[in-house]
Amino acid sequence: MGNLITEDWGLIDYGEAWIRQEMLFSQRLQKKTDDDSDANDLIIFCEHPHVYTLGRSGKASNLLVSMDQLKRFGASFYHIDRGGDITYHGPGQLICYPILDLERYGLGLKEYVTLIEEAVIRVCATFGIQAGRLEKATGVWLDAHGSNARKICAIGIRSSRFVTMHGLAFNVNTDLRFFSYINPCGFIDKGVTSLAQELQYEVPISEVKRLLNNNLLELLKK
Q1: Structurally, what CATH architecture does the domain formed by 4-220 represent?
Q2: Which residues on neighbouring strands pair with residue 87, listed in sequence order?
Q3: How many Å separate Cα 174 from the centre of its chain?
Q4: Residues 110-153: pLDDT tens digits?
């Protein structure tokens, strides 16, 4: 049986990462079709320069500025094939792209999203932050059912025959001003936050990466 391998792509342009993801996703899907039991699954970490991505069912109206304004901010824009609405990626935000055959782990898509959320909730708890879920909204939230609900991690997945790509965006030291140019994930009445915002100090992203990877591996191998 294949291994579960972690890769770190560092700071990488979104378009380049998308192309690499698509290639790895297609290869993993083909190996599943070929019934290759030695195929490896991947957990990929990276960061992106400033970019906005709109999911396949998202509304373009949730981008609140023009393309010319985005260029002035030094940000790019992609309409992509994951679930979810619009979100922002940028330096200081930890991106994780698992390319997995969920059937290998006995998971359906809903259970997989719950697993990702649980891994992030556990990382937040390590830093003394109580995080949780918001009904009918994927991702990880603080004060989810209170008056100051704010998202700390966005999740958007694409799958085919239970092979996954795309994944999660965890705000660690993210510049939250860039979220003011969108309705994040389509919400107009909820905020966003980061570990640094909550803790009032910059958090080593390498440590968050280590913790998230360990929690994902532990949960997937249960």
Answers
A1: 2-Layer Sandwich (3.30)
A2: 53
A3: 13
A4: 999 999 999 999 999 999 999 999 987 889 999 988 888 999 99
pLDDT of 154-191, one tens digit each? 998 999 999 999 999 999 999 999 988 887 655 555 78
| Catalytic residue ranges | 185
Q: What is the CA radius of gyration of the chain?
A: 17
pTM of the model: 0.93
Which tokens sit at 65? 């500025």
Phi then psi for residue 131, to 5 deg, are -120, 165
DSSP per position, the chain = ---EEEEEEEE--HHHHHHHHHHHHHHHHHHHHTT-TTPPEEEEEEE-SSEEEE-TT--GGGB-S-HHHHHHHT-EEEE-SSSSSEEEE-TTEEEEEEE-BGGGGT--HHHHHHHHHHHHHHHHHHTT---EEETTEEEEEESTTSTT-EEEEEEEEEEETTEEEEEEEEESS--GGGGGGB-GGG-SS-EE--HHHHHTSPPPHHHHHHHHHHHHHHHHT-
Per-domain residue ranges for the chain?
A: 4-220
Edge-to-edge order in the sheet of strand 86-89: 76-79, 51-54, 86-89
**Length, in residues, of the chain:** 222
The burial of 24, by beta-carbon neighbours within 10 Å (0-12 exposed, 13-18 middle, 19 or more buried), is given as: middle
Angle at 171 between CA 196 and CA 25, to 5 degrees: 155
Residue pair 87/52 in contact (Cβ under 8 Å)? The answer is yes
